[in-house]
Amino acid sequence: MDLDKLLEKLSPKEREALRKKLAADEPAVESRLQRLESAMFGPGGFDPFQMCNQMMGGFPPFGPAKAVQPAQVFNALADETRLKIMRLLNEGAKNVDELVQALGLAQSTTSHHLKVLKDAGLIKGEKQGRSVYYSLVQPLNNENSK
Q1: Is the same domain home to 54 and 105?
Q2: Which residues contact 7 (CB under 8 A, 6 or more apart)?
Q3: At what angle do helices 80-90 and 12-41 cross, to 10 degrees?
């Protein structure tokens, strides 16, 4: 059932009481959301919602070298480990060994996640000597992160 239809069934007095209750709870909800965001992404960390907003807003955060479907990007961002990798790469370029150590995963698992992110056009790899250093195609703006 639609929220508006539910609200229509309430009396004016009940609607006002509900509005007051929601307004009183808003700071607590906002505080919980901030704590959750900080726990997930760290203070000033990567904000996957920014990436989604860029995609939906027609501002693709990729280079023109390859056309990527939005579903492929969302699939890449749908995994917690890949979000952690994005957060780590937002701090600066890292090679596989550094990511393996930071994530506590096997090298093969980390490489698989890097391939998914690279295929989605979110990261790029640059060979330096015997190592490949991965970085974000477009660094993320952390202004909106708390």
Answers
A1: yes
A2: 15, 18
A3: 70
Euclidean distance between CA atoms 111 and 25, whole angstroms: 44
Say how many domains are in the chain: 2
What pLDDT digit, counting tens, does each position of 100-135 carry? 999 999 999 999 999 999 998 899 999 999 999 999
54 and 36 within one domain: no
CATH number at residue 98: 1.10.10.10
Please give the model's pTM, rounded to 2 decimal places: 0.56
SS3 123: strand
Same domain for 124 and 54: yes
> Which sign does the torsion angle of CA 103, 109, 114, 120 carry?
negative
Query: Within 13 Å and on the Cβ side, how many CA atoms surround 33?
Result: 9
> Between β-strands 123-128 and 94-95, what pairing exists: parallel, antiparallel or unpaired?
unpaired
